[in-house]
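Duplicate of #3305? Posting structure anyway:
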């Protein structure tokens, strides 16, 4: 065993490499503050678990980039508020399902545009007040009632054909008007005269057309 007691200050200077190996446990107790200054890199390797307990605040400042890799599950629990401030873009990618639950209100605010896109269906909300709902089949189902209010309500199914969604619309075939020739006019006149000769309803005779 080794015991060292220092009643005053202690200064240790090593001009070259310093290596210390302990085969069993090490316990270090500081009754006051501790300051560690590393001029270059620092590496910490643990073969087992790690537990850190902080009685008060914890602050971490990284002047460059930071990367965290977790090969198993990760859990984070915050008893009160949590704030995230990103100066640039924020990208979240999830391979499985995504679930967001709130016991109170949920607010999503965007200064420009909000898009919700799933396959061939989606909703787009723009800052000018325009809302676009598109899809191959759209159903509005209200258990009690459905109410639509607007200064002008327009229903124009042909406008959906310009989108990429599948909207089947059969074009209408407009047939040209038949031309009236002299032969056609003579045939119509002859048929009218024949019907007048066959009809004897107003002459008291036997009508060959309506009998």
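Output from current build:
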């Amino acid at each position: 065993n080794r015991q060292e007691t220092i009643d005053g200050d202690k200064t240790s200077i090593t001009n070259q490499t310093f290596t210390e190996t302990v085969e069993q446990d090490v316990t270090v107790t500081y009754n006051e503050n501790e300051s560690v200054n590393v001029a270059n890199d620092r590496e910490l390797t643990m073969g087992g678990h790690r537990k850190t307990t902080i009685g008060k605040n914890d602050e971490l400042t990284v002047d460059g980039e930071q990367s965290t890799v977790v090969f198993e599950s990760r859990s984070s629990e915050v008893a009160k508020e949590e704030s995230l401030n990103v100066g640039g873009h924020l990208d979240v990618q999830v391979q499985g399902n995504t679930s967001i639950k709130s016991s109170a209100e949920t607010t999503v605010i965007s200064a420009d545009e909000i898009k919700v896109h799933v396959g061939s269906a989606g909703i787009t909300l723009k800052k000018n007040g325009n809302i676009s709902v598109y899809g191959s089949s759209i159903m509005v189902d209200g258990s009690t009632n459905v109410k639509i209010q607007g200064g002008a309500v327009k229903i124009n199914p042909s406008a959906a054909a310009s989108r990429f969604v599948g909207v089947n619309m059969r074009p209408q075939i407009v047939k040209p008007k038949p031309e009236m020739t002299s032969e056609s006019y003579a045939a119509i006149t002859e048929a009218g005269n024949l019907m007048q000769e066959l009809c004897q309803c107003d002459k008291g005779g036997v009508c060959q057309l309506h009998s």
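Confirmed duplicate; merging threads. The CA atoms of residues 39 and 136 lie 63 Å apart. The longest helix spans residues 182-198.
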